[in-house]
Amino acid sequence: MNVLPCTPGEALALSLSKMYSVSNLIHIGEKYDSLREFMRAVGQGGSDVDGIGTETLKKFRTATLIDVDRELKRMSEMGITPLVYGEEGYPTPLTEGVHDPPLVLYVRGDCSVFPEQAVAVVGTRTPSGGGRRLARRISEDLARFPFVVVSGLASGVDAIAHQACLKAGGRTIAVLAHGLHTVHPTAHRQLAERIIETGGALVSEYPPGEPARKSTFVPRNRIIAALSVATVVVEGGVKSGARHTADFALEYERLVLAIPGNPIEPMAALPNRLIREKHAELCRGLEDVLASLPHYTVDGLRDALDMRARILTKKAEQALTSLGPDARLLMEQIGTDPLHVDDLCRLTDLETSLILSLLLQMEIEGLVEQLPGMRYVANYRA
């Protein structure tokens, strides 16, 4: 880790003046022993540091006017902890192979979550029904291993990943594209509070008060990738934000995995392309994540997963038997392609009222899942 030519207070002041780049400071440190020496040279008109433009110099000057103690008190009242690059507590993953780490990482929540191994789960804001199920399953399994699950708190795959991780009793990190004074989208405020309450964290490189803008989301995605030993892409278009996250992960020499999808589905385009171009390894579940990570031994993992599958199958068989032969007949028709209730009536010759009653009980038992439009898919196959 490079040593910055400034004190932690000066670094915080620079971040509050909207200078988020560590690289500029390291560049200055190669020529000047301290930030004060650099500013003195600037004031005397003698600075000839290449790459430091007029706008950046304005930020340096603004930083000298900031009351750091007052800002620290204000952040403390908001429950926000600033972690400064090069200082104790700053997440180590952000310094490993990352050429553009945030100068300051602002945190709401438990800072002890960062030493834990993390895996990012990312994807589209508009996942298919299958994408939702896959995002939920991989996130729950990662949380139980346990990994910390990292995502961006956006609608769709991000929110599903956070929610599934919490359901499995895990800890999760949400990386935001704005200051921690608020949560965007506002519909996820309750989810954000649950993340904090369960030992996770909300993080951002942007100071409190900084709004989300179109230009802040791609930089946010680099932090998601950098915090994680691996990034799992569930669904997304080829030009989506998930593509940026995968690109950053590859740049930082992190593992990228992608869950393949139906070629005719638009949201399968990104994971399928990543696999085809050999930028990502194929991911069918937790076992593929672990098998691809050199840090973990997979001895006995498949046996453990097989045992879990046998237990779940036994429970499903018992539930199906208790529901009777009509339920089994119904189950034989339901697969991974969604079927409407009318289709099931036609395929089984059972009365609609009986089918609806059985489907409700089968959904409670976890045998099937209802999708919008009275369509059903199987969670279990004999």
Task: Annotate the secondary structure layout.
Blueprint: H1 8-16, H2 22-29, H3 35-43, H4 54-63, H5 68-77, E1 80-84, E2 104-109, E3 118-122, H6 129-144, E4 148-151, H7 157-167, E5 172-175, H8 189-197, E6 201-204, H9 217-227, E7 230-233, H10 241-251, E8 255-258, H11 269-276, E9 281-282, H12 286-292, H13 301-323, H14 325-333, E10 339-340, H15 341-348, H16 352-364, E11 368-371, E12 375-378
Parallel strand pairs: 3-4, 3-7, 4-5, 5-6, 7-8, 8-9
Antiparallel strand pairs: 1-2, 2-6, 10-12, 11-12
Rounded mean pLDDT score = 88
User: Treating each run of at least 4 consecutive H or I residues as one helix, how many helices?
Assistant: 16
Strand order of the largest sheet: 1-2-6-5-4-3-7-8-9
What's the alpha carbon Rg, rounded to whole Å? 25 Å
SSE run: HHHHHEEEHEHEHEHEHEHEHHHEHHEE
